[in-house]
Amino acid sequence: MSSALRLAALAVSLPLACAPDSTAVPPVGAPPVGATSVGAPPELADRNVVDSEVRERLDELINAVRASPADADARENLARCYQANGLPDLAEATYAQVLALDPQRPRAWYLRGVALAELGELEGACAAEARAAELAPDEALPRWRRGVWLLD
Fold it and tell me: Taking the complete model, does pTM exceed 0.70, yes or no?
């Protein structure tokens, strides 16, 4: 069987194989879903791990979150910046806050799954991708990612 055919077959069976309860992505220490305040945004412990331009941008995004703590968009922007700069642990923690504020964000679920996979937490990653697929059934990326992970 070709790898493309195996991937297609796997994608069809993924909803059952990857995560029995796709809504259960238990973030460690995450605030309750629907919270109006989820606390301070995660920050770098060592600010020297990124260059000065990235630090400046992170400071801007963190300040935006502090100015509007219940703004899920501001937190998602911060999470994406963390992720784009190779900081999946901070990205995942920030996506957990985003999803506590607004659990109906398929892009946040998808990107949280990517961050979890980067951290080696494939079970949680699969569950996050399943939730993203539920919320955006026409989007192929969450199903594709899970398929790739399960083939590896």
Answer: yes
